[in-house]
Amino acid sequence: LSSVFNYSCMLSLPFVRIFLTEMQHNAFKSNFK
Prior knowledge:
The chain is mostly helical. It has one domain. Helices cover 91% and strands 0% of the residues. It is built from one helix and no strands.
C-alpha cells in the first residue's frame, strides 16, 4: 500500500509543479496588466 502511495505521489508531483508554475506565471502576467 505504501509503495502504491509513493508511486502515485511520484506521478502527481510533476503535474503539481507544472500547475503551481502556471499559477505563478498567470499571477505574474495579471500584475503587469
